[in-house]
Amino acid sequence: MATLVSFILFPLALLLFASGFFPYKPFIPGLAVFDEGDDGSRPSPIFDRVIFMVVDALRSDFVYGNNSGFQFTQSLIKSGAAVPFTAHASSPTITMPRVKAITTGSVPSFVDVILNFAESDTTSTLAHQDTWLAQLKAKPDGRLVMYGDDTWLKLFPDMFYRHDGTTSFFVSDFTEVDNNVTRHIPEEMGNSDWNAMIMHYLGLDHIGHKAGPRSSPHMIPKQKEMDTVVRIIYGFMEEEAHLSSALLVLCGDHGMNDGGNHGGASPGETSPALTFISPKFQEMGLARSLPKTSSEEFDFYDKVDQSDIAPTLSALLGFPIPLNNLGVIIPQFLPLWKKDSNRLQLLQENAKQMINIVKQTYPSYDFDSTTQSANCDSDSNTDIANLECKWQKAQQLISQPIGDTNLSLAIESSLLDFLRTAQAVMSSTASNYNLTRLYQGIALSGLAFFIALYACAQKGCHGAAAVGYMCLILAGYGALMFASSYVEEEQHFWYWMVSGWIFYLYWKSSNKREFKSGYTSAFVLAALTRVMRRWNQTGQKFAGEPDIANTFFREHPNVMWILILFAYTDLYQRLLPNTSIGDPKNKLLSLLYLPLTSFSFIFKVVFTDADAPELIRNTPFLSFLIRGVRGLSLVFQARVVLIGVLISSMYPIYLRATRKDARSVAKKDIRGTFHSLLTLLLVTQSRATNIPLFAIFRLQQQILSSMTLSTTEITITSLLFQYASFFALGGSNAISSVDLSNAYNGVSGYNVGVQLGWADMVGICHTPSIEHYSLRSQTSIEQAYPAFDHVRGHQSSGGYGSMHYPTNTSIHMDRIFTQVSLQYGVDAGSARYR
């Protein structure tokens, strides 16, 4: 009974804790409007439309570094036509919360981490929140278009007049996912019916996830491709009259670490590039940006917060600042308005909008007084009291008649100081955790733990030393949670705990007669565990460092394939005895596993050839296999393996039902067959570089099975090795370490519509392949789209080009659209008009 109670209390404690950690965050509803007192004396907008180009995971050094592929963009920075910044993206550094921060100017919630992976989620919509997209659409004849990551479509339903979204989780696709965005540029650059165009490119992020930012041979070509897109758009801005007052914003939603992942708070993940581009910056004499001489690796130019994009666009395009904004107008753009009164008005509007949020959060403080409090000079003031003093100081300066430039500069400085302080204070309180529920959840989980201990004592937990070691694990793991750096590097804790447990098993065997065999088993187990630890470098600090999977195997792919072949051979050998239940005739049926395991191996070879062709080089035998199945799509091959595993799992159940005289034997064989088939399924869904790990797991299992372990010891062993294997396979506490490269095996496309769902059921053999996502087929924009062949460079203006199109451009683009639609398995009508 006590065990049942503890099992019920643990999930309840988790739910209670989660409700406090992921609270509902209130927001101010409605759209912001200008004060009624504004009578046309407002500062004139600098631009009338914006082209917002997001390159997923665009780390600052990808654009500004010496080895960058953005040579044209760097030439614009040097000429003064582009204003660069290093943006700060706060954690969690994944797409959905970062898009929320960019568009609302607010601080996202950690619950968005979960919603980011819910492909069909609509609960995180921003349809009823104030954003700069909603403000632009509210303008007379306001229309928005969007192409790229369909996260924007989930966040902003019914917002876009034209759109064409692509799923962000086909991480093996580096090419089509970006071509599907670029193909819309010629048509949209010729249209004048929109005032905002959103483009979200995913290919660079996918390359990072697959091979990391430094080791992949495709990273620089992809950067050059994105730079070519900037060059194309800039050429249109120079030549098309309706784009003469357009602003191009090139930015990343987040960065990536040296392992190619993101989601955490490392410098690489939180330092995306942000560049504002327009020929008008040169014409209006805006000061050129100079690189910073900083010791920080990703700190190239002035650093701004990503939430500053929202109020800056509000000022540059002339619409009210979103109500929930916590950003600050980037001061480098203030000189675009020559009058002091215009600059002050923009800053005051930003400050008034910010003070409304502060008042709602801290109603007990006096932000209406223009007289500074007597204790403003005290060093013991809290952050909010200090903010109150800065607001009062700014109001005092504003109340004085403006008679000279020095006073205007003093007001500007005071307002910016207040805004930056308010941004820091409000950002720190934006999470608004429900501490009461957090404490209740912790207390309830503690109660469940002690009840579980009581149940264990009642039933008799054998082995005081084993129980003591388990208590040591719990105490150490609990202490681990109080330091973020330990959480980020949690894998080391489990590796050391496994090593300690192996020493315990050796100590246990030394007290028994089987000391010699126990010593050998413990030594081999420790050696295998050491190899397992070195397989994938994970965590934050050592991500991207040399390891077996990503370094050794890339230099010695033949060794990897020998080990993979050994793992598949072992799997087949394990399946054989599990189907021969006493009857020699059943051994013939066991031969069915030979084509299943063989086809699974061939599928993994072909998939790796499409996904990471550098691992196939100099292997003639594998090339022969690839040529042998060239006519079969990857989707078909994956489905054959998956269906084969399903059918094979039904066979032992049938045997047990029909062989009543051998049920005891059949029961054992069913467990063995299911375990082997599950391993085959997991191998099929794993990266090729991780498949040899399953052979190591198999050897560890055999060694542990040979030992005489109590129920308590088996439980502790399972717990320790399941955590250690998770990290050995490349997992970490960063949500970004979830490996999606094999998540779509056997899936031809993604669409929640009934039409595609029905089409997927029609036939296994007529489904389009995703093998065209191979990196080897990656081409430049000019190669992919002949309509872009007529790019002319202007030598006198730094090499940026303009575009000229042949008369059949629309026909050509329609042909490309049809081709991409067939490859993705989506309806050509997905680019809907609203």
TrEMBL record:
Name under which the protein is recorded: GPI ethanolamine phosphate transferase 2
Keyword terms, alphabetized: Endoplasmic reticulum, Glycoprotein, GPI-anchor biosynthesis, Membrane, Signal, Transferase, Transmembrane, Transmembrane helix
Domain GPI ethanolamine phosphate transferase 2 C-terminal: 430-753
Molecular function terms, GO-annotated: CP2 mannose-ethanolamine phosphotransferase activity
Main location: endoplasmic reticulum
Membrane topology: Multi-pass membrane protein
Pathway: Glycolipid biosynthesis; glycosylphosphatidylinositol-anchor biosynthesis
Pfam families xrefs: Phosphodiest (PF01663), PIGO_PIGG (PF19316)
Single Gene Ontology BP annotation: GPI anchor biosynthetic process
SUPFAM superfamilies cross-referenced by the UniProt entry: Alkaline phosphatase-like
Subcellular location per the Swiss-Prot or TrEMBL entry: Endoplasmic reticulum membrane
Protein family per UniProt: Belongs to the PIGG/PIGN/PIGO family. PIGG subfamily.
Keyword presence, Membrane: yes
Entry GO CC: endoplasmic reticulum membrane
Role played: Ethanolamine phosphate transferase involved in glycosylphosphatidylinositol-anchor biosynthesis. Transfers ethanolamine phosphate to the GPI second mannose.
InterPro entries assigned to the protein according to its UniProt record, in alphabetical order: Alkaline_phosphatase_core_sf, Phosphodiest/P_Trfase, PIG-G_N, PIGG/GPI7, PIGG/GPI7_C
Signal peptide: 1-20
Native source species: Arthroderma otae (strain ATCC MYA-4605 / CBS 113480) (Microsporum canis)
Transmembrane segments: 438-457, 464-486, 492-507, 588-607, 628-654
